[in-house]
Design brief:
Number of strands: 5
Shape: elongated
Radius of gyration: 28 Å
Number of helices: 4
Distance between the termini: 87 Å
Largest sheet: 5 strands, mixed
Structural class: alpha/beta
Order of helices and strands: HEEEHEHHE
């Protein structure tokens, strides 16, 4: 007589349930990193019948250079990230004079003709770190926000968040964000 051994069978019915529960556990407990971007609105397309190339006076352009050594140069002057916001505010908020409260001690050459004509030009190299680039963008955004906040408070006696849509549009028209970005390479 031949002795046949039957193989032992494992009940795998609950294995699918366990795998499903583990999958749900890991999906619920895992945090997914989200990339942060720079919130900018692109300018509108130039109408076909208009010449959209502007001649911008040199005094209206504030040049911010980010080099491969992770230095910030504003008009060829080495500045720290902490000083950048004030430099941007001084350049933007004026009437070609020292009428703004934080412009004291700046030379007249630092000023643009007026806030509507002020441009910020950011130049960076390929070796500039992403963190530095985002930090510079953030400081420029803070400068514009603070200028708009002060203007809203002085004009409407309200904070930016309390303004109506029309009032906010007027504030944005007084302090338009005009930034250009170029690479040095």
């Amino acid at each position: 007589m031949k002795n046949y051994r039957t193989s032992e069978k494992v009940n795998a019915g609950s294995m699918a349930d366990i795998a499903f529960l583990l999958l749900i556990f890991f999906l619920v407990t895992t945090t997914i990193a989200t990339d942060k971007g720079i919130n900018r609105q692109l300018t509108e397309k130039c109408p076909d019948l208009m010449d959209c190339t502007k001649n911008i006076a040199e005094r209206n352009i504030l040049r911010v250079l980010l080099n491969s050594n992770q230095d910030i140069l504003v008009e060829d002057e080495l500045v720290s990230i902490d000083q950048l916001k004030n430099k941007v505010m001084v350049h933007i908020d004026n009437n070609a004079d020292e009428s703004c409260s934080y412009c004291k001690g700046s030379s007249l050459g630092d000023f643009s003709d007026n806030p509507k004509k002020a441009f910020i030009n950011i130049q960076h190299s390929r070796e500039t770190s992403y963190e530095l680039f985002v930090s510079v963008q953030d400081e420029i955004s803070k400068a514009y926000k603070l200028l708009r906040e002060v203007y809203a408070q002085n004009t409407y006696q309200k904070t930016l968040s309390d303004l109506s849509v029309m009032e906010l549009k007027k504030v944005q028209d007084v302090y338009p964000i005009q930034i250009s970005e170029t690479t040095n390479d």
